[in-house]
Amino acid sequence: MEKICEELDEVKVEIEKLREECQAKTELCGSLRKGQDDLAAKLQEARLEIERQAEEMCVKSKEIFEVRQLYEGIKSKLQEKESFLQNLNSAHQKMRVDYCEKIVELEGENKKLVLALDEAMAKIHDLEKKTCASDKEINVLKESLSVRKVKSVEAPLNLQASRELKEANEIIHKLEEDNRISQEQLKWKNEQFTHLEDAHRRLRDDFRASEAEWGKEKSELLEEISSLQTSLASHIRISKDLETQLRMCNQALAHEESRRKVLEVEVSDLRSQCDGILLEHQETKAQLENLTLKRDDEIGELRNLLRTKEILFKEMKCRTSLLEQENLDLHASVKELQHTELSDAAARSSTKKLQTRLKSLEKLHNECSLQYKQKEAKFSSDIEKLTGDMKECVSELNVKKLQIENLEKDLEDCHSSMYVQNEYISILLLVLKSEFHYAATGKHLSSTGMAESELHSTEKDKKVILLKEQLESMETAHFAVSDDLKEKSEETMVLKAEVQRLKEKMEESSKYKLWFNGQMQQTEISLQEKERACEALEKATFDLAKRTSELRESELEAEKWKSAAEFLKKDLENNKLASEKESKRLLGILKEQDSKASDMQQKISELESMAKSRADAVEKLKKGNDQLKQDLANSELKSENAKSDALLAFEKEKQKLLLILEVRDKQIHNLTEQAKGLKKNLAVAETVITQKDELINETLQKAESSKTTEIESKNKVIAELEAKVSSLLQVLESQEKSLLNLKEKDEELEAMLEGSKMELEGLKSQFGLERMKLELKNEELESEKSDLVNQIMNQSHNLEAFLLQMDGMYTRIGESLEDVELQEKLQKMLKRCEDEDGVETDDRSAGDNHTNRAVKSTFLPTQKWHGQRSDERIPLKERNY
């Protein structure tokens, strides 16, 4: 019995050690779980901070990108303006070349006219010289005639005189022919001079018409220059505003770069913190690995202990065999007692021994009960810890559920923000449409009062009509109006204030430009309205760029949500794996506890068998005592009392052990049920998480599809608006270029006109002087002509008188010279004269009938020559066009 009690004590000690080890391991697991939870919380906080900072960085990078886009747009505009200026310079050079060519042509025409005038003047001088020579010859002939008259009077009967007279007649005929030729030349020159005067008048009329056209063109160019100056002033103001905006953007860029550097430093700090956290995580992993190694070592030690316990069990079996032998010895002793009646002293000594053994057994039972109470307290504490762990797991699941709900709320907020942005864009489009409509109506009202400006603004009106049609088509696509009308009304008020400010500026500029005409003011107003429309379009493009950037931000946010969902999926998978590992570990612990409980039950069954064997031995002893009742009544009573006490104590201990075993069974059953409940909860959580993951994926897919469709539609709208805006900007830039070209052309034309005016004034002065000279020369020529006519008339009278005298002379000579020889000689002389002269004589005038008769009577062959020359054309008819 003492050996059995010692073995029970050893078993109890081992069980207590195992329980302590289990408690230590459970405490280590709890501490490790808490450490893992703390690390997970820290990692989540670090991730949230990193995501927040990444979002800030994304927003700032987007702002920087927008500012860079604005800067690039301004650069492109400046480059376009430079190209525009280059085009203007090229157009200016072309205009200069064209005007130079025109001036060269005009100078060539003027040179031709001057050459024609010089030729006419040279011909007139030649004619004057010829007339002077003919006058001199006529004077010489008159003198010779006077001398010959004297001689003829003195010697009428001289043949020499007759010859001289014949020669004189021939000379007179020659002079008459020369005079006739000179008169024909004078007529031809007069006609040529009249033609030149007509050409000069035509040139003068053309010059006056060109001057009138140039005046009109100059007025138109001045009007265009004034309009271009106004547009240039407005563009200069816009460029100054853009320069200020550029400076602000550069400052904002510098500020954002400084902030970006600070954020980079913070990100580096966070990275270092994350690295530290990862190192801590790795350290905890190493600790867990060490603990697993320790656990494996402990499992090996437990296996060794089991082996030692098996050895002890075998020893216990040997001891039981020895105890059985002792029982047999006791039976033999009892039989010996039965056979040999011993004395009362020997019986008393045996009963005392039994009493001492029973007392020792009672002490052992009391110690076992105390140990069992301590173990029950430890089991209760372990159960409380397990319940606490279960509560922590449930709280973690609740936290994850809250996180999933927050993510769903964030998704709903994103959808609502996208809806609000869509409505905002639609309202902006409506505002732009109203502004375009107002600008178009203003243009229409201004164009009704302007006849000349319609020619310049027809293309713009067509483009505005196209824009109207496109805006109406955009209205059909974006007719959704939301509750943000108050904000849009505020924006419209701001736009109205800006419009009023611009109007005030235009009024101030109009005060300084009162000298312009009403039509120029109307054109300025129309240009200003077009500029306002362009500014509104630029604002709209800027707003659209903002909206596109916001859409890109929303896309990035959606991608972030996707990454967060994937990260959560990964976390859930990791949690699943960890929970599976923990469930496997708990199952292993439960299996170990089951194995330990089965070992304990085997030990208890062995103890019960030993107790049964001992009860059998006691019953055998009872039977021996019954047989010895008569002899040993007192001893039997004492032994019965001792047996009853021992049985009661043994039954009590047995009941206590059974209760303890039932409690353990209940605890094990509860633990198994809790493990099953944990498994079920984990399965339910996994199903819920999978469902939520599917819902999140579906919502994300729907959001992505809706966002993609919205983004595509908005991108299309933005592309159309950008195309429209680009076309309008191109139109405006082309107009600006044309205005600058016109300004430069106007300046060049003004310079050219001033130069041409100076040249024309010089030419006019030269033409006036030449005209005066020509008029004086014409007057001189007319006076000379009148003198020549008078001289010719006088000469004709003189010739008539001379011919009369000659007739008288011929009559006298005919009367005096009746000889045939003289007549033959005279006829021979006349034939010689005819042969010598040939084709040189012609009738002088129709009124010289008397002279003709005389010539007919005297010179008959001359009529043949006259008939021959009458068929020929006059030189003027050949040269006159």
Describe the protein's architecture and organization:
- The protein has helices spanning 2-154, 159-339, 344-448, 452-477, 485-511, 518-627, 633-816, 820-837, 849-858, 862-870, 875-879.
- It has a domain at 817-881.
- Helix 3 runs antiparallel to helix 4 (452-477) and helix 3 (344-448) runs parallel beside helix 7.
- It has 881 residues and is mainly α.
- The longest helix is centred in the C-terminal third of the chain and has 184 residues, at 633-816.
Short structural summary:
InterPro entries: At4g38062-like. With 881 residues, the protein is mostly helical.
Q: Could you outline the blueprint of secondary structure elements for this entry?
A:
Elements: H1 2-154, H2 159-339, H3 344-448, H4 452-477, H5 485-511, H6 518-627, H7 633-816, H8 820-837, H9 849-858, H10 862-870, H11 875-879
Helix pairs in contact: 1-2, 1-3, 1-6, 1-7, 2-6, 2-7, 3-4, 3-6, 3-7, 4-7, 6-7
Keywords: Coiled coil
Region (Disordered): 833-881
Biased composition (Basic and acidic residues): 841-851, 868-881
